[in-house]
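Message: Study each token:
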Amino acid sequence: MKTNNHIVSLNLFTNRLDNKKWFLLLILQSCFLNSCDNFVEVDLPNSQLTSPAVFEDKATGNATMVDIYNKIRDNGLLTGISSGISNQLGNYTDELVCYGSTASVSFDFYNNALVATNSNISAVWNSSYNQIYGTNSVLEGVKNAVALPTPDRDQLTGEALFVRGLIHFYLTNLFGDIPYITSTDYQQNSSPKRIPQTEVYDKIKTDLAQAIALLPEAYISTEKVRPNKFAAVALLARVDLYSGNWAEAAANATQVINNTALYQWTSLNKVFLKNSTTTIWQLMPAVKGKNTFEGETFIFTAGPPPLTALSPGLMNAFTTGDLRKSWWTKAVTNGTTIWYHAYKYNQFQNTTTSLEYSIVLRLAEQYLIRAEAKAHLNDAVGAAQDLNAVRNQAGLTNTTATTSSQILDAIQQERRLEFFTEFGHRFFDLKRTNKLDSTLSGVKLGWDAKDQLWPIPAMELLVNPNLQPQNFGY
């Protein structure tokens, strides 16, 4: 296994990476392999650079955080390549149809035939905890730094807490009860125990609350690739929604929505451009001229599709006049059959200047979070107003739903059409509203109630009995 990939067991990776070498590797990778000068100019690091020295300097401290974003972009949960959850959960639910062979990375996801030895499941688990280890390294390094100025200390700490909460959020929604790792100490991390999802959420909220207190309102990058305070608030709004904390979810979403100096509606054809005014946080491509992995994954130019296509069920869900169908999907035909692919990202080849970045958090979600929270709070009028804000941007008239129950159903339909092929929103929405089985049982071949959770990787259970028991059905 190559150390550069950092795909190592949660129980093994901490004793495979010496802190000193790990930090030096971060800087070298960030500066030379991933063109981190797009974020911050970093001089050639001294060959005797030690891990404590990394965080005594703003530039090298920033480089370690940038490297974590690079890893999030390139592998694990949020990568736009085919192994990431945007593709895999699209196949897992009713968004995508898999056209790959049985050897395809998506075949078992599409057929709901996951097992505990699935290599993609193991890669997601291990890369995610490796990224979490990176955030903990940043937190510990910054805490022990002496010369780092307070604004830089706060920025790096806030970003690391934000990312740590973000990754744990996705892990708990995929695997259920999970360990929440807050240290780089090998002894602590060698045999962590799973904790209930409610406790995971509490820890995420604690991390995000601290991040909100530390991060500035303004972005330190003009391209929103380094999270600010409102990125953490936006994620907290989502966590509150998933937790059923309706008033808190509405209040946090309102903070983001009301910041019109930073976030404003734009036309649908501009939503996924790198300079979109609806973007809250995004991931930068590796090199100048490169665009998103999502474009490379979902776009195809001839049929039959080489990997996946949008499902007929999704395409039929668009109503007449919905601009998302015309702007965010594209038809491909061989003369007899028509297929559709996601076209949110238009670029799948290099361009002179990068035009599109991978958008992780955006404004429309905050409106739909607030709409759903208000509906649960019996504010049907306010909920409808927020729902209509999203519908109107898509060229649709106001909703005909009037009661809170009707509006909640309408919101879920809107989320389906707004967030398809974006980081598994469809799966998580069906799951948290208890509609997974009723929606997918008659639609997905092989769907079973156990599929609400992914299996804990078999190797993890073998090396760490504290992770037992295995999730039900596996």
User: Anything to note?
Assistant: Residues 17 and 287 are 27 Å apart (CA to CA). Strands lie at 96-98, 279-283, 308-310, 329-333, 338-342, 358-362. The chain has a mean pLDDT of 90.
